[in-house]
Amino acid sequence: MTDRRIRVWVAELVLGLALAIAAPAAAQQPPVMEGPQAEVDAVLALLKAWGERRNAGDVEGVVALHHPDVRIMTRDRAVLEGHDGVREFYGENYGSGTTRKQYGQLQELRVFDGVAFFSGTFLVVDEARGIEDPGRYVIILRKGDTGNWLIYRDIDTPSPDGLVLKP
Fold it and tell me: What is d(CA 12, CA 17) in angstroms, rounded to the nearest whole number?
């Protein structure tokens, strides 16, 4: 091997190692937040309640966090609409007795006049059903009649990016 070729090989090795080290660090970055702090806090509170209710199998509690005109757009099935669609989806996947667990990493949350969205990665694991489902999501929220934030659109897509959340 020539001296020049060795230097190129070493440079490529160092760059590869640097990228490998930086990738997990990039995944751990705090989420980007934009908007009035009180509104950001209200959206974060909704996100927390959603996770707690989902994990507890409280389907009706989850339904209450969704706008009446909600649409859930997930893979391999027709769009689920309204509170009945939420009830169907969460009843099938998170109802009482389920072993399904969902892990998520919020990457971005932005609040505008009466509309907000957040996005990130997720991993759904249901050992009883043999499911390991990594992906990315975008959730759009609107304010309800009483001024509270409600989930308006729930969109997800498969992505190996969610595998970094594996416990």
Answer: 9
